[in-house]
Amino acid sequence: MKMRAIFNPCRAGKKLLDALTVIAFTVMCAVSLQKAVAQNNDAASTNRTEDGASLAPKDSPTAAEQARAFEQATEKIRADCIQGRRIICGRIVKILPDGLVVDSGYTNLMRAPLNKSWLVPGTAQATREANMIEANEPGCACVGLVFLTALPKSRSAAKPHPYDFVVVQAYPAGQYTYTSVGTIQRTVRRFSGVLATAVKINRAAAGIQPPVFVPDAK
């Protein structure tokens, strides 16, 4: 005697629900994959021109923006140099290939006729004021050991010698380390007799480099 299969609606419904669930999940995965592919294609197309050349990312500064940022940084450094300018008035204690070590603070060198030239012979009568403190204002007399670079051009053929005097307006340019006696090294303030040189030195110390533009390939 054969037994007939008995239809169980509960079991059949469960199987149908499971099948529909699998189908729905498969469709959702396919749609999600299609959207992801479309987004990637859109992103790739926005970074390419019509002829296929790659464009710079949206967050990359343009050449004009880079140039403007460089100019603004340079102007800020130049303004700081002008604000921090000092009168270097003192005796040359050491001559180095790239400048002079000067003991500054001989304010009576700023009198006429000594102030007619930036280089004054060591025979000039000059004294240093005792216990002098350097003011914190533009153009004041500098006090203490400093290194002076980018020397002004002399009107005469005279060259600086040890123990000569200098009287020159100079601009801050960081610090300078030199060997004073034997192996003893000293670090002093550095000043430049030329504003443009001071700006260049400070800009390089800050890691600010001119923007480099790569020409488009033809």
Layout of secondary structure:
Elements: H1 9-46, H2 63-83, E1 86-96, E2 99-104, E3 119-120, E4 140-141, E5 144-149, E6 165-179, E7 185-192, H3 195-205
Parallel strand pairs: 1-4, 5-7
Antiparallel strand pairs: 1-2, 1-6, 2-5, 3-6, 6-7
The arrangement of helices and strands along the chain is: HHEEEEEEEH
* Largest sheet data: 5 strands, mixed, barrel
Oligomer: single chain
Computed Rg: 37 Å
Strand order of the largest sheet: 1-2-5-7-6
Helix content: 25-40%
Overall pLDDT, averaged? 80
Characterize the overall form.
elongated
**Total DSSP E strands:** 7
- Overall tally of domains: 2
* Alpha-carbon distance between the two ends: 90 Å
Approximately how much beta-strand content do the residues carry? 15-25%
Unreliable sequence segments: 1-17, 19-33
- Structural class call reads alpha+beta
* Number of helices, where a helix is a run of at least 4 consecutive DSSP H or I residues: 3
